[in-house]
Amino acid sequence: MSDDATAEEITLGRIETEVALLMRLGEATRRATGTAEHRVLDRAAYVILRHLDKAGPQNVSALAARLNLDGSTVTRQVSAMHRDGLIARTPDPADGRGTVISPTPAGLQRMAAVQAARTRLYGDILANWSPDDRGTLADLLHRLNEALDARNRPR
Amino acid sequence: MSDDATAEEITLGRIETEVALLMRLGEATRRATGTAEHRVLDRAAYVILRHLDKAGPQNVSALAARLNLDGSTVTRQVSAMHRDGLIARTPDPADGRGTVISPTPAGLQRMAAVQAARTRLYGDILANWSPDDRGTLADLLHRLNEALDARNRPR
DNA sequence: CGCTCATAGCTGTATGATACAACTGAATTA
DNA sequence: TAATTCAGTTGTATCATACAGCTATGAGCG
């Protein structure tokens, strides 16, 4: 690394650092906070329920594509969730190969509980942030995710 | 979820959502981008090298504590890195039980390469962001990490 | 000194999330 | 209709991680 880094490169390096750190801390937080809510609904199940809730019932492939996961991963995740009564599977009327996955009321309830717990956690963590900073963080994270997603998807 | 959520609660929910999403996308990006740089240095090794580089040589326990990882995890990670010549282990002169881990030149070089690749990636992803927004993102992520860390550490 | 207890690190073993490859059966197309 | 593509599943492998149990060293106390 020569030291002719521009201010912009430094900023990018900082973002890189902080995202890497956030991944690690997020993992750790998820584990540490797993006293109650998290153990009953693992990361992937939560994200799947969130997506079903927002985007509506859909089949395994659609889910996999949307979540950047392999179909087999989603299959297993979904079958575990089915075993636990969190989702329902109905044959896709339009395609005999497909199965449509939809959240059950129990699933939605579980999702909401985890969401509430996490929201509470963030309220705690960001207790002394100004509403303004919180809003800006939410906005920028959203834009970052959009950008990452755009980069990932058009493979 | 009753709908008496305050604006603040909504913001927290958004942050929660975006962080969860970022974790997923970050994973996916790491995997997808793994064409060259990432396959030679996995996530944990990278973070360990970064930390050694910044905070200086230290023993396994210190690393584990700092990274919120179990000692056994770090042991294995470190021994893989040792096998690959990325770090050196010297007996701790002050404590016969301990081993001090330090990055080798090869390790630092590898780390720098990954870092550069990631920085480039972010430059690409955030190509059309204003310098201002990038700076703000870096700042807020930093503060978020500090807050998460503070929450995690004082166990 | 010689116990006893705490600590550093390692190894065994288990779990969870993930991918890739191979397969089955249904849909689409030539 | 035969060939091809696609949806979903199952087999198998990998990786990161944790927890429990072990060994050896260090520290404090009688």
From TrEMBL, chains A, B:
Annotated coiled-coil segments of the chain: none
Residue stretches making up the HTH marR-type domain: 18-146
InterPro entries per record: HTH_MarR-typ, MarR/SlyA-like, WH-like_DNA-bd_sf, WH_DNA-bd_sf
Cited SUPFAM superfamilies: Winged helix' DNA-binding domain
Database matches in Pfam families: MarR (PF01047)
Domain of life: Bacteria
Protein known as: MarR family transcriptional regulator
